[in-house]
Amino acid sequence: MTVCHRRIHQAFKLPSISRLLPSIPAVRSASTAAGAVAGDPFTDHPSHHHLAAVDSKSTLLKSYTVTPPIKPWPQRLSPKRLVSMINRQQNLDLALQIFDHAGKYHPNFAHNYETYLAIIEKLSRARAFEPMETLISQLQKSRIRCGENLFITVLRNYGLASRPKLAIRTFLRIPSFGLQASVRSFNTLLNTLVQNKRFDLVHLMFKNCRKKFGIIPNVFTCNILVKALCKKNDIDGASRVLEEMPAMGFIPNVVTYTTILGGYVSKGDMEGARRVFGEILDRGWLPDPTTYTILMDGYCKQRRFMDAVKVMDEMEENKVEPNDVTYGVIIEAYCKEKKSGEVLNLLDDMLEKKYIPSSALCCRMIDMLCEEGKVEGACELWKKLLKKNCTPDNAITSTLIHWLCKEGKIWEARKLFDEFEKGSIPSSLTYNSLIAGMCEGGKLPEAARLWDDMVEKGCVPNAFTYNMLIKGFCKVGTAREGIRVMEEMLDNGCLPNKSTYSILLDGLYKQGLDGEATNLLSMASSRGRVDSDSWGVFVTKVVDASNINVEGAAIDRILIESAA
Predict the structure, then answer these.
(1) Residues 546, 517: Cα–Cα separation, whole Å
(2) CB 3.0 to 4.6 Å from 334: which of 128, 242, 339, 448, for a disulfide?
(3) pLDDT tens digit sequence for 449-508
C-alpha cells in the first residue's frame, strides 16, 4: 500500500465490529424501558409465515428463481443451443457457469454427451485441467453414453501441456466409461509420448497394445514408433521396424520412409538420407514437399548449397510445389552465408506463390541486410512485405528499431514505433530497443518520456531497461544519476546484474568518482542484492594495483557487515 493509499485508508477508518456490538443491546433496553413491546424480529417478519409453510428443501428451491449467468437466457433450451452458447463464450468461467446453470436450474433440461464434449474441449484447450477432471468424473457417474473424441481431445491437450502421465491415466480410464479404446486414441497417446520425449514408453505401449488393451495397430501406429526410435537416435531400430512391417501386415508408406530419412539427416549422414530417398523413388512413389524439404535442410546444415539447390530443381522437375517451409529452409541458409541477392530472389518467388514468410524469417532477412549496411534496403523490404499482408509484430518491429537507432536514425525509429503502436501493443522487447537506441544516442529526455509511457501502459521495465538508462546517464557524464536509477531498480524488486555494476563502475571511474564505487557496493550488499558474478566485477574493477590497500580494506569491511 502506497503512502497516499495509507492516508486515505486512515481518513475513512471505521470503528471495529467489537466496538459497535455493545451499543446494540443498550438501544434495545432503552426502548423496552420506554414501554415498547419487544417482539421477536424473526416471527414478526412477513417471510416467516411463507417459510413455515414450506414442507421440504426441494419445495423451497422451487419457490425461488436463480438468476442466470447471462441475459437474455433462452426460455427454450436444447443441448444443441447450449453447445452453441458455450462455444461462443470467450470467458471461460462464464462458459462453465452457463453449463452448470443449464443442468441445475433450467426446467426439463438434461445434459448429454455433446454438451459435456463442448465444455470439456473448451476447458482442456485453456489448460483448465482441474475443473475439466471434475466434469469428466461427473460424466462418468451420469452413465451418459459418450464417444472417443472427448478423450482424444483431452489426450492431445495433456500432451501440449507436457503432462504425459495424466495422458496415460486418461487413456487407461476409457474402459470405465463403457467404451472400448480404439487405435485412434492409442495413436494419439503415442504421439503425446513422442512429443514429451518418452520414447521408451512408446515402444513399451506398442508391444502391449494387443495383449493389454485389445487394440490392433495400423500403419500410423508403426510410423509413430519409427518416429520415436529416430528421435531417440536409434536409426537401426527404426530400420528394423520398417523391415518387419510387411510381416505384421502393414505396407510402409512415404511418411515411414521420410521419417527414417529425417533420422539420417539429424545424424548428419546425408549418404544414408539420399539412399532412403532413392528407395522412395524406386518404389514408384512421389516424395512430398516435406521429404524434399528435410533433404534440403540436411544439405544446408552442411553448407552444401549446390546439393540443396539440385534437390529444389528436382522438385520442380517432378511437379512438386515447394511450400513455405521449403522456401524458409533455403532462405535461412542463404541468410547465414550473407548471400542477399539469392535471398531476395527466393523471397520474390515465395511471395509470387502467395506464401508469407514467418516472423523469425523476416527478422533474419532484416538482420542480414542491415549487417551488410543496407538499413534502407531492409526498410524497403519491410514495406514490400506489408503490402503482401505480412503482419507486423514485436520481434520484427524491435529488429528494425534496433538497426535504425544503430544508424543514428532515432526519429525514424520513433516514427516506426508510433505506427506499430496504433494497431498493436508494444512488448518490453520493443520498448527496450527504442529506449536503448535513445540512450546510446544521448536522447535521455526522450528515453525518460518513453520509460514513463512504458510504465503507464503496464509494461514492467526489466534489468535491460534499467541498464540502458544507467548507461545513458554515464555516457553524458552524470553517473550519480545512474546510481539513483539503480536505487529505484532495487526499490522495485528488480535484481541488478553483472552488466549493471560494470556500467556504473566504468562511469564512476571515468568521472573520477572512485569513492562512490565502494558506496555503491555497500548499498547493494546491504540489500542482499550482489550475486557471485557481480562480486567478480567489483573485485576486478575496484581492487586493482593502484588502490588495493584502501579499496581492499573497504571491501573487507563491507563483506564483514554483510555476513553480520
Answers:
(1) 14
(2) 339
(3) 998 899 888 888 888 988 898 888 888 888 888 888 888 888 888 887 878 878 888 887
Contact predicate 225/206, CB 8 Å: yes
Residues 238/276, Cβ–Cβ less than 8 Å: no
Asked if residues 48 and 42 have their Cβ atoms less than 8 Å apart, the reply is yes
Asked if residues 399 and 366 have their Cβ atoms less than 8 Å apart, the reply is: yes
Q: How far apart are CA 503 and CA 441, in angstroms?
A: 16
| Sequence-ordered alpha helix ranges (H) in 145-218 | 149-160, 164-173, 183-195, 199-213
What 3-state class would DSSP assign to 502?
helix
pTM of the model: 0.71
**Which three cell numbers mark 550?**
584502501
- Contact present, 499 and 467 (Cβ < 8 Å): yes
CB count within 10 Å of CB 223 equals 23
Q: What is the pLDDT of residues 481-496, one digit of tens each?
A: 888 888 888 888 888 7
Question: In this structure, which long-range contacts are made by residues 53-62, counting pairs with CB atoms below 8 Å and at least 24 apart in sequence?
Answer: none
The secondary structure of 250-277, three-state, reads: CCCCHHHHHHHHHHHHHHCCHHHHHHHH
Positive or negative: CA dihedral 329, 333, 334, 335: positive
Cα(270)–Cα(295) distance, integer angstroms: 8
* 104 burial via Cβ count (<10 Å: 0-12, 13-18, 19+): exposed
Sign for the pseudo-dihedral over CA of 287, 290, 293, 298: negative
Instruction: Give the span between the Cα atoms of 208 and 434, in whole angstroms.
Output: 58
**φ and ψ at residue 557, rounded to 5 degrees:** -65, -45
Cα separation, 444 vs 473, whole angstroms? 8
